[in-house]
Design brief:
The protein is of the alpha+beta class. Helix content is 42%, strand content 18%.
Amino acid sequence: MKKNFYITTPIYYPSAAPHIGHLYTTVACDAIVRFKRMQGYNVMFLTGTDEHGQKIEQKAKEAGVTPKQYVDEIAEKFQKLWKYVNVDYDRFIRTTDDYHEQAVQNIYKTLLDKGYLYKSEYKGKYCTPCESFWTESQLDENGMCPECHREVKEATEEAYFFKLSAFSDKLEKLLTETDYVQPEWRAKELVNNFIKPGLEDVCVSRTSFTWGVKLPFDEKHIAYVWIDALSNYITALGYENGKFDDMKDFWPADVHMVAKDIMRFHALIWPAMLMALDLPLPKTLSVHGYINFNGVKMSKSIGNVVDPFVLGERYGVDTIRYHILREMPFGSDSDYSNEIMINRINSDLANDLGNLVSRTVAMVVKYFDGTLPSEREEGEFDADLKAMAEKLAPAVEKYIDETKLSLALTEIMTVVSRANKYIDETAPWILAKDPSKAARLASVLYNLLDTIRICAALLQPFMPAMMPKALEQIGAVAEDIEYGKLGKFGVLPENVTVKKGDVLFPRLDVDTEIEYLNSVIAPKKDGYKEDEDLDKANTINIDKFAEVKLRTAEVTTCEKVAKSKKLLKLQLDDGRGGRQIVSGIAQWYKPEELIGKKIIFVANLAPAKLCGEESQGMILCCDCGESVRVITVDAEVPNGSTVR
């Protein structure tokens, strides 16, 4: 009887089209899923989109469409991307699906009936992009959202609260006495940052917008994102809706894979919800880092994303899959750059793997007309290569089970490198000159082919499009790559026949490719095509523009804010008695560089406190690639002049 295995990605928020930053989690899960299927598991692989909330409502309004029309379009883009990169999921859930909404209402009713929900009033800091409430102490050093580092607003709202605090002791035990959160240092981080200071109840309903699931017992309240979104992992299996009947087979989940920015919700709120519902807890929460572009998290809002469709068209989907999985160390961030990617393609895929396959197949064709003879002669270096190849599958399996995909790939490529070294050690081209060494030559080439069989089969979950081509070239058939045979050497027929094919991974010219990639990515800084499209979609009329009051002022003094590395405090002569503005431009300007400058500022922006300093406006700046420059005006312009 097959064992069951259930793995999930987070459901993605469709506020904008997907990018390579979304790709890692889903491709990582797909690689694990393919490996488990290869082992014979009965797998359920879930992904989807989280489609409710205030930000979606706002985005749809700006685009002039209904929220459902807006999310339909973006959800389709996610599904198109997953198909393009060969993600073989079993179920795609959308929180706008009728069966999910029905289950969410039932879950809220159950939590209320069991005494875990109560109505109160929320007062605190709210980040609209993250749809998260924060306390003053949780804000970053600049008084901004600790997750996205954008502005938060004071919010007061009637809401239902989930009694998260009631589960504090149980959650601490979960995080300290089990291996639920991986890597384990993430669990310690959660305990120290959230449980030890005192776990607070969480707001789980909203009344300030309407795009969401209405609570069955109080229809002016909308289900807040965390219960709505988190419950997808069980509603997709049929919990409380009757759509499916898979809870008995697949719950609890074997792996929830998430990025670190939503770790606390999955490690605290989600287990507490399950405890409240008397359901088993998931086995593993695997937390990975961000893909950073030039040291900054990839984000649509700051325009540093990389389009996976562009990369896939240029280099092949498998190449992109391999690169992002190879570069992401378990639990930590990874850096993306054009140089890193091109060099990785050349070193691992072109020079090592691709070259090993093409050289070996070419030698079999050249020296034996494509079919090896049965005679063999063992020799030096054989035993070491065979031993490494036979130990490979158990090592890869261990790392796959620990979701350490980068280490799994490292193990495989170590054997690939050893096989290339074996060619140099045995020198087949010299053996070929001596007819008496034909049996030894056949042994060397057979050992290489069988090593490739094992490596290529174990690479199939990571590169499902290209590895079947490699296996075809070395003459391997389906029976040769059954999982039980990947820990054994000598599986290929003695008289195996190879088939010469196209080069799997052509070597790239680094300078040419970097120039190309820069030209593709850079236009968002130079031409701003995407911004232009957004501008056309989000036009405003003259009356709306007139609401923003822009004026000129002279910077009279400027100093760093003591509690912040990013903030400068400027005193302005605005021709109207003066004002103070706090601006996050310290990394681009020294205070003395701004004194005496004539700048433009937003005069009617509501005052805000940043690190304890009141800011009475906002300075106009330009994004210039990786820097920011303050907009200045001629010295003769009077202070306080209206800009229009």
